[in-house]
Every structure is written in structure tokens, then in C-alpha cells.
Write a structure and sequence with these properties.
Blueprint (H helix, E strand, L loop, with lengths): L9 E6 L9 E5 L10 H8 L14 H15 L11 E2 L45 H10 L7 E7 L15 E4 L16 H10 L16 E7 L4 H13 L4 E4 L1 E6 L7 H12 L3 E5 L10 E4 L1 E4 L1 E4 L6 E7 L19 E4 L1 E4 L9 E4 L1 H18 L5 H10 L17 H7 L3 E6 L5 E3 L4 E8 L7 E6 L2 E5 L3 E3 L4 E10 L5 E11 L4 E6 L8 E2 L5 E8 L11 E5 L2 E5 L2 E4 L6 E10 L5 E10 L9 E6 L5 E3 L2 E3 L2 E7 L1 E5 L6 E9 L5 E5 L4 E5 L3 E13 L4 E12 L2
Parallel strand pairs: 4-6, 4-7, 5-6, 7-9, 9-13, 13-14, 18-24, 26-32, 34-42
Antiparallel strand pairs: 1-2, 3-8, 8-12, 10-11, 15-16, 17-19, 19-22, 20-21, 20-23, 23-24, 25-27, 27-30, 28-29, 28-31, 31-32, 33-37, 35-36, 36-40, 38-39, 38-41, 41-42
Helix pairs in contact: 1-2, 3-7, 3-9, 4-7, 5-6, 7-8, 7-9, 8-9
């Protein structure tokens, strides 16, 4: 850039964002005393042909006249030059309703409604209120099909950022300053923490138990850029936000430049136009003067008397403000039939700042603008493949109508454009991605489906290329291994949507246990033709107990019975033998337990045969009584015991509770006993011992659980 001829000049800063079609910008300091303001009128006439005679232009100082003269001289000479106009933030002093848990009143559907912590009830976020914007329901819709993972980066060019004080901003928030020597956390001018409140409005994180909720809360990621509100640092700020990856940029500040000086805004407008041409959406506040930004000055023809920038810049969506809980324009909001594009809530709640420790109510188009930017982010998150123009078309195309002639059909709508942007979608909800499952365990497969108005779909499930069937939900079992589960929704008319997850299925070996006969006191002794009672239990960690056809009994390796219980003679030669109880799951993984027994030749007096008929082996007995000692299950024990010689038998019952030593609990064929319980499952090992008059002894044991839910 060549230096201005009349004022000399020193280059103070350079901004070269390395963006296509975006030339470098320089901040130049000039000496206004070297200029002759007497020629300013002629210069302005050349820059504004056809509008030479109109209203008066006043400047605040002689230095200001000199600066304008130098700038106008260079502009007439063909240099793309701008004046570094200083803008002001559009916030309005708020009240003092700063209660953290109670909050400011008036944000329910009824203006008199007390504050509710649930942001879904807030009138500027919910559906069903007068404004009926539906931002919060749009969060739910996006979450239902896992679109809240589609992060959208929002740049906020402003002042006064303190995420360390307001810890409600999204993870990954970045901060930078384009003003040398000024940190991004430096307080702002006028409204010191304006940027923090603007960021809160756009992307305060909902449902985290603190702060507030911004319109893009579930999807927004913020790039905060500290700018001085002057045009050079504003240009630097928006380019820095773009360079940080922002798809959307918000500017909650404005300056009103007289029509005669509109040429001085052209560099800023060129910057916004280039960024918009690059696919970035830009939002700016309309201002809080309650006036028409399209107001005109006329002499033969008419033209706007002020350029409100950046609101009226090319490529910028200008946002006015709605009165709280109303479709009417807030009286303090600027308006304009041509350049104010959309109206969003003028009054919102923002979170803590260094000066305000609790959430509070704030007013201004400064907050209407980031609210609209946040809604655009919701639309973008619904379909990340769409471009900025498609997002803008949906945002503006779904606006609702106000009875206010200065608003008309420009009321912001969130839920409908999000629905419009969201394609037919399916999201697998159960099992979760990466789930660890048990082999053979019945698993419920369920997906959330958004039909986009296409009708009810047929949902088909697959494990790799293997069909698991149709339905939503669908229950199926999986073999061991790592599997890709795919659900596909086929809609009437042929459209489809699908989602895939990976799960890991582990097959755990079943465990089996021989209850009887027991060799705890040494190998039991039986005769070859004696009916022997066999009982066992099984557990498959993945599916529960094994079925009877999955377990078997073996003598020295050869199967002789199936099922968890059996009573049969072994008819094998005398000597030591090994009995094995074996259980296998449906995938062939097996568990075993063994017991040593001895077979001896039958003597003249055969041992008794004995069986417990009540309770059954493996029974679950719920507590049915209590006393001073606690809860218990009371029952009548049942048995079948026979002496082959027909002699008398002595019957004794013992119980080993939870692994403790066995204790006597009764005698005879059917005593009434109390099995002690407690919270959860209390195991009992009940043994019946039968002794005949020759001293022959036989036992039968069952294992049961006494259960209580506490």
C-alpha cells in the first residue's frame, strides 16, 4: 500500500489472512493537521455523484475533518481506503435479578411465570410460547439421531472474554486477540464483559447444572476474537475467526456512518463480502436506537442517510430484536424493510461474569444476533454436508410472521429449519458403540429414526453380512468376536438411512458344580447295582443357567446320564472311579467338575437309597418371615428314603449357610425349618443323611438360595 500523499503516514499493523480474493489490509496513522478540510466538500461530491446537495454532515473535531480529507483524497485517487470507524457494543444495561437457582422471572410461557431452571421452559428457547422458536426441541431432535456430535465452529468478534469465570462455554473454546498487547481476557469498553455474554447467548452449554443455555449450546464450538470495535481490528477479527475455522461469525457491534462517508466503509464491506463468498455466514446486530436503518435522504432521488455497519455490509445477516415473550419488535431495536433480515429474542439470560456472579437478564440486539447465529449452527449440524448458502436459505425461508409491520415475516424459527435440513436419519441407540456383550445373550437392538416426512420405514439389522432380522426394536444373540452391526431404514418411496456400530462379544466358559455325591470327606462308597443320586448346578456368565440338554454325567469319560439331576446305578466293577459333570454352551465352550467315588461289592446288607424331594436343587426361595434374628424362608423339607431290607432309617438334616460349617436343622422325613436370609442372595447347602440299622450311610445334598431385595 502506498502511503497517503497529503498526510504521509506510518503503517501500524498489517492483516493478511491468506484468503483467496482477500487483499492485505494495513492500519496507517496519519497527521490530520497537514490536510486542508476546505476541499472536503468537493471530494465528497466526487465520491457521491448525484447526491451533492442534501443534509448537513457534522464531525466532532478539526482532527476528524483532517482525517476525512486525507482519506477522501486517496479514495478519489483510486485507492481502496477506509476510515477506522469506532463502533460500540449493542448491549443495554441489565437489571439485577441475579439469582443462580431461581433466576430472573418472566421466561416462562406466561410473562409472570417464575424462573425455572429447565431451559426447555424458557420462552425464547421452547416451543409453545408466543415466540415458539423451538431451539430446545431442536436440540432434542438432533440428539435423537446423534447429530449433536456435528460440531459447528462459531467465531465471536467482540471484547471481554472470561471463560475461566463463566465455565459454561463449550469444550475446545479458543481465544485470541487481534490487538497487539491486549490479551483476549482483557475487559471491554462500555460493557466490560460483553463478549462473554454474547458467547453465552450463542453457545452456553445446556444441561450441565450451571450457567445458562445458548441457542447452539449442544453443537457450538467457539472461537473468541478480541477486537477494539474499530474497523481495522474488526476486519482483522473476522479474518482471524475465519482462519480459526469458523463457519459462522457474529459481530455484536455497530457504527452509523453518514451517507457522504459511505465510501469509507467499503474495505470493511469488501472483507465481509469475501468471507461470505467463501461460504462463511456472518451475523451482526441491527443496533438499539429504535430507528430505521434504511432511513433515506432525498434530493431529486433518495438514498439511505446512514450506513449502519456491519449490519448493512454485503454478506451480513442483520438481526433485530423481538420484545420479550412477544412477536413484536422491541421498541429499542433498530429495524429496516431492506437490511434487517431477521428478528430474534432481544432479551435473554446470560451466565456469570467477573462483575456478576449469577445468571442475569440482558437486553439488546447484541444478543439477538448471536442467538440467530446459534440457530444457524443448529441447522448446519443437522446436515454438515450443506453449504452456508443452503443454511441461510433454510434459516430465512422458515421465518414466521409477526403482526408488527416493522417485523412482518422475519421472526426466527429454529425447529422447522432444523427439521428441513435433517435428512432421513437413523441412529443406533442400543447397544452402544463399543459395547462389551456376552455371547449368546439376547440383545435388544434399537434405533431412533427421523423419517423427514417420508413415512414409517422398515428397519433391517445385520451383523456384517448376516441378517439379524427386521423390526425396531429387534432382539437377537451374537457369537463371540468383534462385529459391525448395521441398521438400515427403508422408507416408502425408496429412500434409505443407515448407521453402524462395532461391538465386542466375549464367550465366557460356563461353570458347573457337583452338589452330590460329594467327596469332601473322602470318596463315597457305592455298590454296583445301587441307584446313586447325582445333582449338579450350572452357570453360563453370558446367558444364565445351562439347559438340561447342555449338561451330562460321565463315568471315567463315558456318558451315563444327562440333565442336572439323575438317579441310576453305575453297574461297574469294584474299585476307584471318577464321575465328571460337564456343561457346554451353544458355542461349544465347556466347563467340568469331578468327584472321586469307590465301588465295592455288595454285602449282605445293602445301604439305603435317599433323595430330597423338597426343596429342588437350585431353587430360589424368597423370604417369607422374620423374627428377632432377622428374615428367613420357612418351608417343610421333603424326602424319599428306603432301606432295601425294610429296616428302620435314621434321617438327619444339616445346613451349611453361605459356606459356614454344617449345622443340624431337623430330623425325620419332613421337618419344618427356617432358612436364614438377608439382603441379596444367601446360599444354603442342605444335606439329608440316612443311616440304617447296620450302619450303612447315604446322603443327598441340594443347594438353594434364600433371596431378599433390600
Amino acid at each position: 500500500m502506498r502511503r497517503p500523499g497529503h498526510g504521509g503516514g506510518t503503517v501500524l499493523a498489517e492483516n493478511d489472512p491468506k484468503i483467496k480474493d482477500f487483499p492485505p489490509h494495513y492500519l496507517v496513522r496519519v497527521d490530520p493537521s497537514r490536510a486542508d478540510p476546505g476541499g472536503l466538500s468537493d471530494l465528497l461530491g466526487k465520491l457521491n455523484p448525484g447526491r451533492e446537495r442534501a443534509d448537513a454532515l457534522a464531525v466532532s473535531s478539526k482532527a476528524g475533518l483532517g482525517l476525512l480529507t486525507i482519506a477522501a483524497t486517496e479514495a478519489v485517487a483510486g485507492l481502496a481506503i477506509g476510515v477506522n470507524w469506532l463502533a460500540a457494543p449493542d448491549s443495554i444495561a441489565a437489571g439485577s435479578a441475579n439469582e443462580a437457582l431461581i433466576g430472573p422471572e418472566g421466561f416462562g410461557n406466561d410473562p409472570a411465570t417464575a424462573y425455572n431452571r429447565n431451559s426447555y421452559t424458557w420462552s425464547y428457547l421452547n416451543s409453545g410460547s408466543v415466540q415458539d422458536i423451538g431451539a430446545a426441541p431442536a436440540w432434542t431432535l438432533l440428539d435423537s439421531v446423534d447429530r449433536t456430535r456435528n460440531t459447528v465452529e462459531i467465531g465471536v468478534v467482540d471484547q471481554g472474554f472470561r471463560p475461566d469465570i463463566n465455565d459454561d462455554l463449550p469444550a475446545g473454546t479458543t481465544m485470541t486477540s487481534v490487538v497487539p498487547g491486549v490479551p483476549a481476557t482483557h475487559r471491554g469498553t462500555g460493557s466490560p464483559w460483553h463478549g462473554t455474554e454474547v458467547a453465552d447467548t450463542a453457545a452456553g452449554v445446556p444441561d450441565n447444572g450451571r450457567g445458562v443455555a445458548g441457542s447452539a449450546g449442544p453443537v457450538g464450538r467457539l472461537n473468541l476474537v478480541w477486537s477494539s470495535y474499530d474497523f481495522f481490528t474488526a476486519i482483522s477479527g473476522v479474518t482471524a475467526a475465519a482462519g480459526a475455522g469458523s463457519k459462522i461469525i457474529n459481530m455484536s457491534f455497530s457504527a452509523s456512518v453518514h451517507w457522504a462517508l459511505e465510501w469509507s466503509v467499503l474495505p470493511f464491506e469488501a472483507a465481509t463480502a469475501v468471507l461470505r463468498g467463501a461460504g462463511i455466514l456472518l451475523f451482526a446486530s441491527a443496533g438499539n436506537d429504535g430507528r430505521d436503518v434504511d432511513g433515506e435522504t432525498c434530493f431529486l432521488v433518495c438514498w439511505e442517510n446512514h450506513w449502519v455497519t456491519p449490519c448493512e455490509n454485503a454478506g451480513v445477516t442483520c438481526v433485530g430484536g423481538l420484545l420479550q415473550n412477544s412477536l413484536l419488535r422491541d421498541p429499542q431495536s433498530n429495524y429496516g424493510h431492506e437490511d434487517v433480515d431477521i428478528f430474534a429474542p432481544f432479551t435473554v439470560i446470560t451466565g456469570p461474569t467477573p462483575d456478576q456472579t449469577r445468571p442475569r437478564q440482558v437486553w439488546g440486539t447484541s444478543f439477538a444476533s448471536p442467538y440467530a447465529a446459534g440457530v444457524a449452527a443448529l441447522i448446519w449440524a443437522a446436515d454438515p454436508n450443506q453449504g452456508g448458502s443452503a443454511v441461510e436459505t433454510k434459516l430465512l425461508g422458515w421465518m414466521r410472521t409477526s403482526p408488527d409491520d416493522r417485523v412482518k415475516r422475519r421472526v426466527i424459527n429454529a425447529l422447522d429449519p432444523v427439521r428441513d435440513a435433517l435428512p432421513p436419519a437413523l441412529d443406533i441407540r442400543t447397544p452402544s458403540a463399543g459395547a462389551q456383550l456376552g455371547a449368546g445373550t439376547p440383545v435388544q437392538f434399537r434405533a431412533n429414526v427421523y423419517d423427514d416426512g417420508l413415512g414409517s420405514p422398515t428397519v433391517t439389522w445385520k451383523r456384517g453380512s448376516v441378517s439379524l432380522g427386521t423390526g425396531n426394536p429387534r432382539t437377537a444373540s451374537l457369537p463371540a468376536g468383534t462385529h459391525t452391526i448395521t441398521a438400515t431404514a427403508a422408507f416408502p418411496g425408496g429412500a434409505t438411512a443407515s448407521d453402524s456400530i462395532q461391538v465386542t462379544v466375549t464367550n465366557h466358559a460356563p461353570t458347573v458344580h457337583i452338589v452330590t455325591p460329594s467327596d469332601d470327606s473322602g470318596p463315597p462308597v457305592f455298590t454296583p447295582a445301587e441307584p446313586i443320586s447325582f445333582a449338579g448346578t450350572s452357570l453360563d456368565p453370558d446367558t444364565g443357567g445351562l439347559a438340561d440338554n447342555q449338561v451330562s454325567w460321565r463315568l471315567d469319560g463315558s456318558v451315563f446320564a444327562a440333565g442336572h439331576t439323575a438317579q441310576t446305578p453305575l453297574n461297574v466293577p469294584p474299585g476307584p472311579h471318577t464321575v465328571t459333570f460337564r456343561g457346554c454352551d451353544t458355542f461349544g465352550l465347556c466347563g467340568t467338575d469331578t468327584v472321586a467315588i469307590t465301588i465295592r461289592a455288595a454285602g449282605p446288607n445293602l445301604p439305603p437309597t435317599v433323595a430330597i424331594t423338597n426343596p429342588a436343587n437350585g431353587a430360589v426361595l424368597w423370604t417369607n418371615g422374620s423374627d428377632a434374628g432377622g428374615v428367613f424362608h420357612q418351608l417343610t423339607l421333603g424326602s424319599s428314603a428306603v432301606d432295601p431290607e425294610g429296616g428302620p432309617l435314621s434321617l438327619a438334616w444339616t445346613d451349611s449357610q453361605a459356606g459356614a460349617p454344617a449345622v443340624p436343622i431337623g430330623a425325620g422325613p419332613s421337618p419344618i425349618v427356617q432358612l436364614r436370609g438377608g439382603c441379596g442372595d444367601i446360599p444354603h447347602r442342605i444335606t439329608l443323611t440316612a443311616t440304617d440299622d447296620a450302619g450303612n450311610v447315604r446322603q443327598q445334598t441340594v443347594e438353594v438360595v434364600v433371596k431378599l431385595i433390600c
